[in-house]
Amino acid sequence: MIRTLTVEKLTKRFTLKGTPAIFESSFEAAPGGITTLLGPSGSGKTTLLRVISGLETADEGRVLLGEEDITYQPVRERGFGFVFQTFALFPDMTVNENIAFGLRVRKQSKLQISKRVDELLELTKLHGLGHRFPSQLSGGQRQRVGFARALAPNPKVLLLDEPFGALDAQVRVELRQFLRELSEQTQITTLMVTHDQEEALELSDRIVVMDRGRIHQVGTSREIYEAPRTPFVASFVGMANVLLGRMSNGAPVKTIVRPHDMRLSRDPSLGEPATIARLVFSGSIAKIEVTTSSQETVSVHLPQVEVDRLGLQAGDVVHIDAARSQVFADSSKTFEPPLPTS
Amino acid sequence: MAEKTVGLVPLSGEAKRRAHTPVITEALCIRLMFILATVLGLGVLVFLPLLLVFVEALRKGVAGYLAALSNEETWHAIKLSLLTTLIVVPANTVFGLSAAWLLAKHRFWGRRLLSTIIDLPFSVSPVVSGLVFVLLFGAQGILGPWLATNDIKIIFALPGIVLATAFVTFPFVAREVLPALEASGNDEEEAALTLGAHGWTVFFRVTLPKIKWAVLYGVVLCTARSLGEFGAVSVVSGHIRGETNTMPLQVEILYNEYDFTGAFSVASLLTLVAVVTLTTKKLLEWNQERLRNDSYTDR
After folding, report:
1. Measured distance CA(A126)–CA(A145) in Å, rounded
2. Which helix (H) or strand (E) holds B75?
3. For a tag site, which of A114, A209, A262, B5 has the least CB within 10 Å?
4. C-beta of residue A12 within 8 angstroms of C-beta of residue A210
5. Residues of B in contact with A76 (CB under 8 A)
6. DSSP calls for B259-287
7. Residue-wise pLDDT tens digits, B225-262
8. Are the C-beta atoms of residues B244 and B73 closer than 8 Å to each other?
9. Strand A68-69 and strand A60-65: pairing?
10. Hey, is the C-beta of A140 within 8 angstroms of any chain B C-beta?
11. pTM higher than the cut 0.80
């Protein structure tokens, strides 16, 4: 039975004074899907994951699995799988022995264990590598062993702490595909920590964006990207131009526009005049920097066909306009987001 | 020691070759001077005396050598040394592992003090270490009268020798294991916990395999020192022939009695222990280096 993992107003302090590592954080991990904790380093996402796993204890708040309160349940009784950024494989054990570890401590029979190990080698595409030691594997293979080992005892929830953080860019992309397939096949509730927004957008059914110990927004990839609820989410997820301005009543505001939501035109009736400061060819998309009359630099991503059609060159005066933008009240104080009500 | 630190930085073949280019070496005459000084120093101070031990031991031939070793008192001294080592090394392995584990994995009040106290046996004169036990358990010592009425003998007997030896060799395992534990991190242990393992399983299946070479290294050093300890044991042993004389004490007695063949025969055994220790130590270091390089080249 797949149950929902719920986190309620979780707070964790490492020092008595100072800002807490996580503060009154609440969210739900969709059963059977991938939920991602996304944020910059120091945002508290790993601490939150460790509290959920039981490797750290919460100061306040609750962790629920279905209706069951597991906040103070010891790690080894939780039955959660954990995958580490550093792989954390047992170096003196073969791949088979690594995968079997969680089964052997549960005193399963040899026959059951070897059957389950074979299943996992198959699932994680490691067949034929069972008798190797971790030091004889590539980084990508090592992390697949990490996944197999965590999945072997049929965990209730799979927790991933920057699982691809120690791998080369190419292997990362490969393993993303691997994780997507794994998630579809096993239908296990998965919670992943990452600072890589592309990874989060691509893999997640639901994203939890964190900064400085607080949750800023919980939503699907599209919601997070297209309707960020705070300036932090807007600027952290995807590229964004942050333009300062004032409302008609004089209140300061921040306007956020994605570079690809910017439009350039030769027609003076369409938008503000601006000068093209730089124009970089990068395949199908041209990356353009324009300087507005108020000396703000704005980046614009335009399809190369469009650039060719308009015959744009560096130094040209064009008219700039935003197809879509978001306006936030600009307070210079530390921004504290409202608690998500999802 | 210096070699160990160098080993921590993995040098690629290219870097190794560059480290030996002539640019950074001295002029030939200076190099020759250093080589001469090293050879002379090593030869006169280390190699020649060691060689003499074996020459003296074998002065009366192999038969004389074996006869000297099979002397009843000498044989007893050898057995006593082995028995002491057999008790001290396992005990200090357990103590050393516990102390290192406490220091590496926990933050508590007095942690630094504990770390310093572990080093105390290294810095204090072995004679003082022996005297401490005499003051504690000797006839005039604090617990002396009580021990006498209960007919328990510690000083001038095996328990005293074991205690003194254990005290002197306490730091070896702890000091070797501590850095290995600190460097190995916590991830594997945490992984084992999330997989449902209990504390003891984590220690024996995960932590111990990670630090096994360091433990072995500490055990080798501890064994060598246990067999060779003179000062502390000399104070508590009482030098009773055929009863409380260990190998180093037997060497002293035989030498004082002008039985040079006897003295040097026992000494040759202790020297052999040293040679075996050094060889084992080198092999362990080499093995550790190989393991480390393995994991580097693969990443």
Report:
1. 8
2. helix B72-105
3. B5
4. no
5. 193-198
6. -HHHHHHHHHHHHHHHHHHHHHHHHHHHH
7. 999 898 898 888 888 877 888 889 988 998 998 888 88
8. no
9. antiparallel
10. no
11. no
Which H or E element spans position A24? strand A22-29
Q: Would you state the structure tokens that stand for residue A204, as one six-digit string?
A: 């997640």
Length of chain A: 342
Phi, psi of B40 (to 5 degrees): -60, -50
Indicate the angle between helix axes B208-228 and B158-169, nearest 10 degrees. 130
What distance in Å separates residue A136's CA from the closest CA in chain B? Answer: 7
Give residue B266's identity as a one-letter amino acid code: V
Structure tokens of B221?
A: 């050093």
**Which mean pLDDT values do the consecutive 10-residue runs of chain A (342 residues) have?**
85 83 89 92 92 92 91 92 94 93 91 94 92 92 95 94 92 92 92 92 93 92 89 86 77 84 86 89 90 87 91 89 81 46 39
**Cα radius of gyration (chain B):** 24
Q: How far apart are CA A104 and CA A107, in angstroms?
A: 5
ipTM of the prediction: 0.82
Contact A142, A150 (CB under 8 A): no
Q: What is the DSSP letter of A2?
A: -
Cβ of B209 within 8 Å of Cβ of A92? The answer is yes
Q: Which residue from B219, B210, B222, B203 is spatially nearest to B181, judged by alpha carbons?
A: B210
3-state secondary structure of A341: coil
pLDDT of B10 above 60? no
H or E segment to which residue A146 belongs: helix A139-151
List the one residue out of A141, A153, A75, A307 whose CA is nearest residue B189.
A75
The CA distance from B210 to B56, in Å, is 44
One-letter amino acid of B100: A
Instruction: Provide the shortest C-alpha distance from residue B186 to chain A (in Å).
Output: 9
Q: Taking the C-alpha atoms of B1, B3, B5 and B8 in order, what is their torsion angle to the nearest 10 degrees?
A: -140
Whether B147 has a pLDDT exceeding 50, the answer reads yes
CB < 8 Å from A in window 188-207 of B: 188, 190-198, 201, 205-206
Interfacial A residues in 56-115 facing B (CB < 8 Å): 75-82, 84, 86, 88-92, 101-102, 105-106
